[in-house]
Amino acid sequence: NLLEKLKRGLRKTKESVEFGIVFRGRKVDEELFEELEELLVKADIGVKTAVALVEDLRRIALRKNIKTSEELKEVTKEKVKELLKGCEGTLNIPEDKKPAVILFLGVNGSGKTTTIGKLAYKFTSEGKKVMLVAADTFRAAAIEQLEVWAKRSGADITKKHEGADPAAVVYEGVERAIKEGHDITLIDTAGRLHTKEPLINELRKVKKVIQKLLPEEPTETLLVLDATIGQNSIQQAKVFKEAVDISGIVVTKLDGSAKGGAVIAICRELKIPIKLIGVGESIEDLQQFSTEEYVEALFD
Ligand code: GDP
């Protein structure tokens, strides 16, 4: 199952294996606290958060007279769950909204196209009619890749030639989805961060075009972040946040990241709920983010 997959992924990383060791058969002393802090920093939860968390654990251990690492592990899990309060979000797609529009943002390589493909598959499997819109017109490969996912998932696609105006593709795609009765429209956008101003303007224009046709859309604006880059993703996110409001985050590649702890930093810094996580490259490797499962996978 998916929890197992997430666990396996997080375990692949040196850090999470060591979490296991720190919490097994050890007595609770200063050496253990220091090791734990180091591991939390390595797992990229953020230095300040790691230091504060371990300080908190020291105090609790003293007050509650915690002697074994196993007991401490349970307290750590509870504390991390507290840190993640408000971080869990679910995709909000009201049944009566047709077509619901989901706008995807993220830098190239973050896993945006793959996520769109997986989500398209999930919706088509539920019997929904899905439209994909290839608004990353900057790279021919991006358009081709989205086409592959459209075929795989049984979704329709609206695309134009490489270099076409993204807003024009979006207009056409959304217009088609309205006319042809699609339930859901998933829009892929470009993510070239090194051209910050043009990117911001392009995303704003895309949003405006959607709202010209459907004033209440997009239902969701999801930012896709790659877990393997850890805390760096926070800087990326800030640029996208400048352009448009983000309703949720998708964290991809959690199956192979040594920086799985970054999820904690991402959500706490950005104050945006995590709605989906990617745990592999195949079509079913997308799941809802659950704080409970995440914490179990991280420390077990
Ligand atoms: P885009 O440029 O943002 O559209 O990124 P892509 O969707 O093309 O993904 C970039 C690479 O990351 C591809 O090789 C994907 O197969 C891979 N990828 C995407 N999501 C995941 C994931 O959850 N886990 C793993 N292991 N790989 C992923």
From TrEMBL:
Which of this chain's residues are annotated to bind GTP? 106-113, 188-192, 252-255
Q: Where in the cell is it found?
A: Cell membrane; Cytoplasm
> One GO CC annotation, please?
plasma membrane
Please give the Gene Ontology molecular function terms for this protein: GTP binding; GTPase activity; signal recognition particle binding
Broad class of the protein's primary localization: membrane
Catalyses which reaction? GTP + H2O = GDP + phosphate + H(+)
Q: How does it sit in the membrane?
A: Peripheral membrane protein
Enzyme Commission (EC) number: 3.6.5.4
- The answer, when asked if Aminoacyl-tRNA synthetase is one of the entry's keywords, is no
**Family affiliation:** Belongs to the GTP-binding SRP family. FtsY subfamily.
Record note on quaternary structure: Part of the signal recognition particle protein translocation system, which is composed of SRP and FtsY.
What is this protein's function per UniProt?
Involved in targeting and insertion of nascent membrane proteins into the cytoplasmic membrane. Acts as a receptor for the complex formed by the signal recognition particle (SRP) and the ribosome-nascent chain (RNC). Interaction with SRP-RNC leads to the transfer of the RNC complex to the Sec translocase for insertion into the membrane, the hydrolysis of GTP by both Ffh and FtsY, and the dissociation of the SRP-FtsY complex into the individual components.
Q: What is this protein called?
A: Signal recognition particle receptor FtsY
Q: Which organism is it from?
A: Hydrogenivirga caldilitoris
Q: What is the gene name?
A: ftsY
Full-sequence range covered: 161 to 460 of 460
